Amino acid sequence: MLNTVSRYYFSANGKHIRPLLVMLIAQATSIATKRRGRTSILVDSDPHVKSGLTILPTHRRLAEITEMIHTSSLLHDDVIDHAETRRGLPAIQKRFGNKMAIFAGDFLLARASMALARLRDPEVIEIMASVLCDLVDGEFKQLKNLEDEDAPMAQPDESAFEYYLEKTYLKTGSLIAKSCRSSAILSNSTDDIVEAAYIYGRNLGIAFQLIDDLLDFTVSSTEFGKPVGADLELGLATAPVLYAWQEFPELGPLVARKFSGEGDVARAWDLVHASSGVERTRALARRYVERANEALSILPSSSATQALERVTLSVLTRTK
Ligand code: FPP
Ligand code: MG
C-alpha cells in the first residue's frame, strides 16, 4: 500500500525539471576545473564520455533524491492546501485519504534520506538536509504571512516584496539551487564553479515559482494540471496581486482578510487582470532568468551549458 501511494505522483507526467538540471550541471561541470583530493569513478558505458561530458552514478542518484524530496513535499502540500488535482490526476488525498498521503510523503523522504546517506559525501548530505529545513521554513513563512494581524497597508511596501521573495526562495529556489550546488560538488568542481551552479539554480528556482504564481492567473486548469485561482482561494497574495495592489489600493483590505469576504476572490481576480500585475511578474521572472544564465558564463561552453540556457528560457514560456 505504502509503495502504491508513494508511486502515485510518479506515474503522472511530471516535468522532471529538478533531475534534468542535476544531470545537465553534472555534464557542464564535468569538463570544468576540479578541486584536488577527491576521486571520481567514470562510467565507460556512458555515451557522453566520448564527448567529454560525463554523468557519474552519484549524479544519477542525486537526481533521483531531488525528485523524491520534491514529490514528498507535494504529498504534504496537497493535504495542507486541500488540492483537488495534481499533474492531471485527482490529488493524492482525494484518492487515498489524508493519513495515507502524509505517510507516503514521510516514506519517500525516508527513502530519499537513505539514498542521500549512501552517497557517502558529508558536504552534499549536509546541503541537501538543509533543503528540508528550508522547505518547512518557506511553508511556515507563507502561513505566518497569512496569520499576520497587522492593520492593512495602503500599498505593499518594499518589505512585502522582500518577504515574498525570501519565502519563494525557501519553498522552491532552495531545492533547485542546492541540488545544482551538490551536482557541481559531486563533479569535484572548484569553489567558484560550485558557487556559480548554486547562483544559477537559485535564480532559476525563483523565476520558476514566479511563473507558477503567474500561471495561477492565466492558464486553464486542464492545461496546468491543477486548479487555477487556487492561491487566492488559499488567501495568498503572490507577485501578480502585490503588483496589482500598487495600482489598486482597494486590494489592501481584501489582502488583509485573505480574500475571505463574499466575492473577494472574484474581485481580486478582476483587479489583477485590470492591472499590469501579470506582465510585471513576467518581467521580474525574466530578470531572474537573465541572472541565472549570467552565472553560467564561468563554465566552459558545451552542449550542456547551451541546454541549461534553453531550460532557463523555457521557464518563461511554460504553460504547465
Ligand atoms: C508547492 O507550493 C509546495 C512546495 C514547493 C513545498 C511544500 C513543502 C512542505 C509541505 C514542507 C514539508 C516538506 C517535506 C520535504 C515533507 P504551492 O502550493 O505554491 O504549489 P502547487 O500549486 O503546485 O500546490
Ligand atoms: Mg499547493
TrEMBL record:
Q: Which superkingdom is the protein from? A: Eukaryota
Q: Which Pfam families match?
A: polyprenyl_synt
Keywords of the record, alphabetical order, are:
Isoprene biosynthesis, Magnesium, Metal-binding, Transferase
Which Gene3D superfamilies does its entry note?
Farnesyl Diphosphate Synthase
For this chain, one GO molecular function annotation is: prenyltransferase activity
Which cofactors go with this protein?
Answer: Mg(2+)
Name a biological process GO annotation. Answer: isoprenoid biosynthetic process
Show the GO cellular component annotation of the record: transferase complex
Q: Which family does the record claim for this protein?
A: Belongs to the FPP/GGPP synthase family.
Can you say what this protein is called?
Terpenoid synthase
| Species per Swiss-Prot/TrEMBL record | Coemansia reversa (strain ATCC 12441 / NRRL 1564)
Ranked from the top, the taxonomy reads: Eukaryota, Fungi, Fungi incertae sedis, Zoopagomycota, Kickxellomycotina
